[in-house]
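does this look right to u?? nicotinamide-adenine-dinucleotide version
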Amino acid sequence: MATVASTTNPDRLSSLNPATGEVVGTVPVHTPAEVDAVVARARIAAHAWSQLSFEARAEELTAFRKALAAHADELADLLHRENGKPELEAYTEVMMALGHLKEAVGRAETAMAPKKVSSGMLANYRATISYHPLGVIGVIGPWNYPLNTPMGSIAYALAAGNAVVFKPSELTPLIAVKLAEIAAKTFALPDLLQVVTGAGSTGAALAKSGVDKIAFTGSAATGKRVMMAAAERLTPVLLELGGKDPMIVAEDADLDKAAEACVYGALTNAGQACVSVERVYVADAVHDRFVEEVVKHVRELKIGGDDGHLGAMTSSAQVAIVKDHLDDAIAKGAKVHTGGPDAISGNYIQPTVLTGVDHKMKVMNDETFGPVIPIQRVGSIDEAVKLANDSKYGLGSTVFGGKAARSIAARIRAGMTSVNSVLGFAGIPSLPFGGIGDSGFGRIHGDEGIREFTRTKSTAEQMLSIPMNMMSFRQPKDMPKKLRGMIKQLYGDGVVAKATDGWRRFRAGK
Ligand code: NAD
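got this back:
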């Protein structure tokens, strides 16, 4: 039975507990040849899976969801030990991942239902659009939400009738191995969801393997490399990349709610979320009160321990990036209200609130991906919107305000916006999820997330013959003249005589 693909490579990869440094487990490193073999097996499973009815697929996927739910404790424990997130966040992640599985199954048939569309001028035709599985989807995942993020692609790809080969992050491979083990025990087709493990080179091999689509979640830099590798075989890609999500707080916002939301949005998962609140713009009149509220909320948080609000950062490399952003901001004049670079100990970072920040600082431009809340004072909503849009990224965003909140939200250049709430768009599985610019393209979740893993087919069926058949060379001699008339009547001003005169003058070179 295939779970994690077998390998002849003696090298193994260790997954470490970021809180303690101890080895949680080891996994194989798959070579390009082994990745190709896994994809070949997945192709056979994909064919059989695509032949099943939606109902039959739903039955198997529901059994898979129930099996995962039965292993919730084990999954949450692995998330806690391998990624560093506390219990609360680990169970939240399991719950979100299973929510996607349920949602995808529930909407696949409707999202892929054939649609009859207008046949326009060809009124004697029946025009339909239908959606079909692509085949094998390669999913490459990150370490920050090692279960929920890939599930945002895996669930929708499987529900749409595809097989999946999943390459998890080298920092969090064990949770993926568990997922594949449960899948192999549940599905009648054991190769339907397979996992290959290793670092970037295993991911690159998957991108080049000839899968029918790559769904990549990770940094913009790696996303570009994946796209280049996939280009070799013109493999389409879906890219869910990083963000630098802004939050705007207008003068008439409910400040207490805005502060609570800001603290959660910026610090959940220790700030290691692609849709973390990464920069905050607050109206001058309420700036000081808002900062006071935020600092108060932050001081209530528990850092570390199984029951903490914030756990250890998953990688020490990320800790170094956060420290660099803090040092840079402080050197350029930012004020530290809580935390700061001196409050970093090993992989633990105390949540840091900064004010007096501006767009010359890394902390307002580059993805920090850590527990940092930089707050900038703005003189007007126009200034806030201009600053919010001053980014190469465009993933999520947040607006808190009164009557104008919705219209402010409409002006933000991003894939998603939460109004008077934070991360709402991520908690509603029927809303498509994705970004623009350096945050990538394509959409997961919702109907769009199902159709992202399908090919669209157009069918034009002639229902009856009519005397004027445009799809033939057998036309009457005066057909060009008739067409000239029709063009003007259908698409021009309708005055045929003028058009004919114009044509004569054109032919005569006048
Ligand atoms: P990363 O880009 O370093 O790695 C992501 C994955 O790509 C890993 O599995 C890695 O092994 C693999 N990889 C590395 N080099 C590769 C190559 N040349 N070819 C193919 N695969 C390769 O990202 P990360 O550090 O694991 O994750 C953090 C990033 O992910 C952040 O930027 C975060 O914002 C982003 N993210 C985005 C979303 C989203 O939905 N938009 C969700 C979660 C995380």
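The radius of gyration is 27 Å. idk if thats expected tbh
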